[in-house]
Design a protein that fits this description.
single chain, mainly alpha, two-stranded antiparallel sheet, 72% helix
Length: 276
């Protein structure tokens, strides 16, 4: 049931996000629905692959994201001075409750991808590398997210400069803060994943891979078209592409290896039949 449901929530989340193209870049209900559906997808996949205890770590990750946002709004650390508007719905301590789910939406795929790209062999250096890659994967998404949300009036910055060239209106401190918080969140998820055994017959990691690559593709295309931010598409495409492109290469390599193995098995079976 969990395995089927995660594909349902994934498909629903992708459908909702596709509606952004027909609504001038999305509406608040569509934004909340897409975040909730894709966050649920990550929780369901975590449950299906490593059980409920592992899935619960994503709730802890959401709590860390919420705490970081509360501190950020109150003190300007670590993101810089910013404020949320009431547009995203119910808030607690001036932080919309949908925001911590947004952290989970990409944090979980980021960790799964880092474990695939870097490897899961034991060792302190490898673990550091995994967490660093996962934090980059998560922070890279915000290069697309923040300009979209600022333009939609969901939050804003008092001092938007200096920033990343081509990504106007977002201070560099925001991305440094994102990377710092991402290190904590991704480090937690990776640590629990390393101690959790995969469920027997667990599904593959196709779901989190799909979430990340779908997000990457739609962010690039959206900024090139209806968002009308080609510079963000370029810069974000390069920064997030540093993770997405290697993942695509690895997945294609795996697919070719499986195809070659299948061809060899078929040829072997035919040879055995002909010798009878």
């Amino acid at each position: 049931m969990t395995r089927r449901l995660m594909w349902v929530t994934l498909a629903a989340g992708m459908f909702v996000q596709s509606l952004f193209a027909f609504t001038g870049g999305g509406t608040v209900p569509l934004t909340i629905a897409s975040v909730a559906l894709l966050a649920a997808t990550g929780v369901l996949h975590a449950w299906a692959t490593r059980g409920p205890k592992f899935a619960s770590v994503l709730l802890a990750a959401a709590a860390i994201g919420f705490f970081a946002e509360v501190v950020g709004v109150a003190t300007s650390f670590p993101f810089g001075q910013y404020i949320y508007t009431p547009s995203l719905g119910f808030s607690l301590f001036e932080v919309p409750l949908i925001v911590p789910l947004a952290w989970v939406t990409i944090a979980y795929p980021a960790v799964i991808i880092a474990r695939r790209l870097v490897g899961t062999a034991p060792g302190v250096l490898r673990r550091i590398a995994r967490v660093a890659v996962a934090a980059w994967a998560l922070t890279a998404w915000d290069v697309f997210l923040d300009p979209q949300m600022v333009d939609s009036g969901h939050w804003g910055w008092k001092h938007p400069d200096p920033g990343i060239p081509g990504v106007d209106g977002i201070p560099l401190t925001n991305f440094l803060g994102w990377y710092l918080v991402s290190l904590i969140i991704c480090g937690l998820i990776d640590a629990v994943a390393a101690r959790s055994k995969r469920v027997e017959g667990a599904p593959s990691d196709a779901v989190p891979f799909t979430v990340y690559l779908w997000t990457y593709a739609t962010c690039v295309l959206g900024n090139l078209t209806f968002f009308e931010r080609p510079s963000v598409a370029l810069v974000g495409g390069i920064i997030m592409g540093a993770i997405a492109v290697p993942l695509i290469v690895v997945l294609l390599r795996d697919w070719r290896a499986r195809r070659s193995a299948g061809d060899l098995a078929t040829a072997g079976a035919r040879g055995a039949d002909s010798s009878r």
